[in-house]
Amino acid sequence: DGGITQSPKYLFRKEGQNVTLSCEQNLNHDAMYWYRQDPGQGLRLIYYSQIVNDFQKGDIAEGYSVSREKKESFPLTVTSAQKNPTAFYLCASSAIFGASTDTQYFGPGTRLTVL
Amino acid sequence: KQEVTQIPAALSVPEGENLVLNCSFTDSAIYNLQWFRQDPGKGLTSLLLIQSSQREQTSGRLNASLDKSSGRSTLYIAASQPGDSATYLCAVTNDYKLSFGAGTTVTVRA
Question: Which residue is closest to A4 within chain B, CA to CA?
Answer without folding.
Answer: B43
